[in-house]
Amino acid sequence: MIRLPLVLFLSATLFATGVYGVLARRNAVLVLMSIELMLNAVNLNLVAFSQALRDITGQVFALFVITVAAAEVGIGLAIVILIYRNRETINVDEVNLLKW
Amino acid sequence: MTGAEVAFVIIGLVAVIGAFRVVTSRNVVRAALYLVVTLSAVAGVYLILAAEFVAWVQILIYVGAIVILFLFGLMLTKAPIGREALDNQRRGVAFLVSLAILAGLIYLFWGAFDWDAPRLDPVEGTTAAVGESIFSRFILPFEVVSFLLLAALIGAIVLSRRDDRP
Amino acid sequence: MVAAESAESIVKAIQDPSWFLRYSWLIAFLPALAAVLNLFIGKRTPGKGSIYGITALAVALVMSLGVLWTFVGGERGFYEASIPWFQIGQLHMEVGVYVDGLTAVMLVVVTSISLCVHIYSLGYMKGDVRYTWFYVVISLFTSAMLVVVLSNNLFQLLVGWEVMGVCSYLLIGHWWEDHVNSSSAIKAFITTRIGDVPFMFGIFVLVFITGFTTSNIPKISEIISGGGASVAMVSAAALLLFGGTIGKSAQFPLHVWLPDAMAGPTPVSALIHAATMVAAGVYLVGRLFIVFLDADPFVLQIVAIVAGITMLGAALMAFTQDDIKRVLAYSTISQLAYMVAGMSMGPAGRTGAFFHLFTHAFFKALLFLGSGAVIHAVHSNNMSEMGGLRKRLPITFWTFLIGSLALSGVPPLAGFWSKDELLVVAEHEGHPILFVVLLVTALLTAFYMTRAVLLTFFGDYRGHGEPHEAPPSMTGVLVALASVTVVAGLVGSPQLGAVFGKWVYFETLERALFVPWVAVLSTLAAAGGILIGYSLYRDYKERDPLTSLGGAYTLVSNKFYLDDIYWKGIIQPVRDNLAAAVYWTNQNILDAAVNGAAAFSKALGRGVRRFDDTVIDGVVNGLANIAGFTGGLLRYIQSGNVQRYAAFLFTGVVVLAIIFTKI
Question: Residue C6: which pLDDT band, with cuts at 50, 70 and 90?
């Protein structure tokens, strides 16, 4: 019913937006949110191709991605809170001890 | 242009605008709420694509749990408000990079798929079908993912525990 | 003595040398050994080391008498023995002895006088601050003189000669705390050194004559008498050798050191400056007589002229001296001139000269040691502080009187016979001028000796102390020497066979001759001198009558201004101007060249360093700086900022994706 390139176009846009968010945002939580956007774009791709190739595997894989995303967000936020506890800030620019 | 496509275009636009506002909003809570909009729109797209199980799992997990997590995270870390507080100096580079990615992706799939190809004939994305696939073909990844969740669970608890042992 | 008619040389090697001859080298060695022993353990030996020298010299004297006995017994030849020392190219250096009658006589003279001086010094140098060292040096000196007398080659002779010079310097300056003494020592050393330079060149000429193979004296004599060298070469050698004699034997113009050498202790004056060292110059001429004979005749004329001038000048200067030792010093110079004059008169004169050397050694040593006793009693050298000492120092007085009569040439004492012989030779061999000069000098000699005796022993005592007779170690020696003086002349008297001429001769025996009128003349000269002296000085009160001679007296008493001429004309310009000029040249030109080279090197070094610092270090540092700079740029990649890493990541992914799908 839907032409595949349209969906791909949407997912590409979402992905690019997510990339922008990852690179441009200072708050670590917002960076995580942008990562979620990227993951959603990927999921969209998977589901679209699942429909285009008439294989349920794409959707199963999308489910797994959602699960992993959930786990990742949980851990990610735990780390962010830990960083906040130690440094009173979650400004990504200020967490740069691994520099030269 | 079928009716499904029109609906798809509208919901897609909503998703894009939402995503755009997520990454440009000056208010973190609003960014989180815009994320809700985007995630919901994506769920809607799933429904149009006849992947109903994935759609409802999306609503359940993403909108229902993950966004709440984000809100809690924002609350616990006292996120500041304002453009200078939220965006860093590398906006220009980031914009270019994301543009490059967009251009790259479009370039990649542009001639690959026929614009006038026959419309997608949706496969049954029912729960039964998905469940059947998971528990027969993908049983091992399923178990592994459970372990992953367990590890994440334990990790999150350990990490966020206060360090006040005697 | 006159020259014999036959010209055949009777000098041959002795066939069966006696023990004394074979071990004659010990005579020179023993005193040296004594000196070394004394040097190391003398201070700890009872008697402070005098025993070594005395023993060694006693033994040496006995051995010398043994050697002489060989020749007394009729032996006429010579004994030579040597060991080769080392060889440079063709030149053979050896160490050896040559003993003939002359050597024997010299040995006896040196050892006996040295022994007398060693014993005398027991009393005279008692309590001296450097007693042991004194004995070391006089023993060493004696050894050196014996080396000169015994040596068979010129280099060995030169060694002994120079060691004597050093010992003389050390002994004159024995009391060097007083500046006058050390200056006199230096003057003596340098003046004799000036004479030693032509001497050494003379040796080189003689060695050259042998073709640079040897300096052996008999060999040289052989070559020259065999006509193996040109007359010019031989004359040059003779003149050069005579330079050494002029220095060492204090002839004009290098006589100036001997009077000043009286600053040394009196035993030293007796041993070195009367009897032995100063005689070494005469001995040299006598030993190398063939060189003088075969030289151009003008060489011997020069010798005679020098001797004549010295003889008269010294005798005149002896009148004006207040210091008793200086009187004797000028007398020595005058008597040495007698000997040199004798040498200039040919082989007969040579024998006469050595006879005079023989007798002069004894009575001059006697006179010096006697004056030493006087000085010891009065604690002053000046005759103006003496007088009337004959009652208080009787032994000294009688021995001194005997010595001065011998010196004046009063028969039958030793001096008469030797002077007479020289006069006979002068008359017989046809040297009229020299005859007159010798005679006049004899008169003058008698005159100044009478003056000395009268001023010292007669009249009233003008001094301030309590003079007393010398200890037996001193007076005993005086008596011994006086006895010898009485009889020594008899060995040369023609009436008794003139045995001396049988020991000392040149190639052929001389014919002994006694010319009565010459004898009478010389006796008259002596008597005349004594009378004049007696009349002038009989009533000496305060002023020397000779001062009434005015200008002439001033001239003579200032030693004819010769010392002043030397000082202003030679020494001061060299010391002040020449030395300063040389110093300036050294500092500014030579050192400047060296310093300039050093400064140039330093500047070069600085330039290299600057090059190294700026260019080379610049390159090295530049490389490091580039690395640092690049690193500084590259470090921004690792900013620690995760989003930046993510940006790079995404860019890379896009690029890779395009590459991998489109190629």
Answer: very low
